Amino acid sequence: MTDFPRGFRWGVATSSYQIEGAADADGRGPSIWDAFAAVPGAVANGDTGAVACDHYHRMPEDVALLGELGVDAYRFSVSWSRVLPTGAGAVEPRGLDFYSRLVDELLGRGIEPFLTLYHWDLPQALEERGGWRSRDTALRFADYALVVQEALGDRVTKWTTFNEPYVSSIVGYGEGRHAPGAREGHGSLAAAHHLLVAHGLAVRALREARPDHEFGIVLNQSPSVPVTGSDADAAAARRHDLLLRRQFTEPLFGGAYPEDYEETFAGVTDASFRLDGDLELIGQPLDYVGINYYYRQHVADAPHRDPDPATRTSIDIGIDTTRLPDVPRTAMNWPVEPHGLTDTLVGLTRRYPDLPPVYVTENGCVYPDNPGFVDQERIEFLRTHLAAARDAIDAGVDLRGYFVWSFLDNFEWAHGYRPRFGLVHVDYGTLVRTPRASFHWYRDLVAEQRAAVGAAG
Ligand code: GBH
């Protein structure tokens, strides 16, 4: 592969609820995912994150594996309810201590921590007070962020506020496929806005405390492609892009909500959750933006399922996303179209002149396991997507690093443990970790790239 620029960061990613387990350990309070996973039928096979990879108890072993992999950076998230069991008020020092030990282990092996404050696991106590529908949750988030920075800010300098606010708000409060399992119109759009407000409040407070730190947000991004050349399908793809992406990227990087927001959600919300000053808060400069890319979205026009906007959920915007192209698919049924990553990165760079430097903070896939964990399909997926990322750099994108999703097999949300995204296989009976062929491939790639650019360490 062509060389990546000097200083390019090679990493892998995970998130707290997906790997930690130890749901009741050391005073941790329940999150919305503990509550949601307990609802019959919510998660495939009745799986929950109660044990997951038991990373909470096996963390040093896992960081040793990261050391073997030789990555520069590790992206992980903090469980809010480990640090503040009810989301606000009393701090649980044992929870904070876990992350402090993790950071020390990482730094001891020369691996830079990329810390995400929120990867979908809201403290259940806050959900009971309205969750992200409520602006108050945004204020609580900023308080929580400061608690974590206070404890780890002498060693952690890269702070991501949110992972994919689209999923937390629209999939959680609109589609109901994720925690907390609500199917609302106005409520889910309020959640989306409050997540952005929370991002802004946290960045402002954290930057004031530590101007030397770097702050960013992670967004799911990919092209929404109309399935035909018709105007109707083009308009549907545009609505889809608004719902999944532009309602976040425009306030963050464009200074305003998108022009077509009002029309798309007419009768669903009056956007009364927007207050004066919010856009300034949301649009403050960032040091980086993380992009999670998985697959291109193919969109057709379709009738609304609920003809009455007053009772309609936010995802019911007159679209059909089930008409997939005739291209290879992963075991998630996700189309494999690596050039979609180039288009995504180049498109964002062109659309937003003030876009900060970019990381690909997630990219990865699931295929059925082969004997001996020889996951040639994953290697091919990662290789072609990295080439697509390299093309984006050539086209002028300021891409600073790439993180594979995921380091370990883990709890894949509503799909439970069946989809395995890891470079490392986890046996959920014995919790034994076994590196797949892709682990060795990525290790060699990182080593080669480092040698090629002649960077130290
Ligand atoms: C990520 O979610 C998560 O951060 C991670 O926890 C999860 O395990 C991993 O991916 C694998 O699923 O907006 O155009 O990108 C990704 C889930 C899949 C949500 C794609 C948004 C729509 C396409 N996403 N999806 S797009």
Report on this model:
The protein has one domain: TIM Barrel, CATH 3.20.20. It has 15 helices and 13 strands. It is globular. It starts with 8 loop residues before the first strand and ends with a helix. Ligand GBH binds next to loops.
Write the element-wise H/E pattern from the N-terminal end onward.
EHHHEHHEHHEHHEEHHHEEEHEHEEEH
Say how many strands there are.
13
Assign the CATH topology.
TIM Barrel
CATH class membership: Alpha Beta
Largest sheet: 8 strands, parallel, barrel
Write out the distinct hetero groups bound to the structure. Answer: ligand GBH
Strand content: 5-15%
Note the total helix count.
15
Structural class: alpha/beta
Total domains? 1
EC number: 3.2.1.21
Pfam families: Glyco_hydro_1 (PF00232)
Catalytic activity: Hydrolysis of terminal, non-reducing beta-D-glucosyl residues with release of beta-D-glucose
Family: Belongs to the glycosyl hydrolase 1 family.
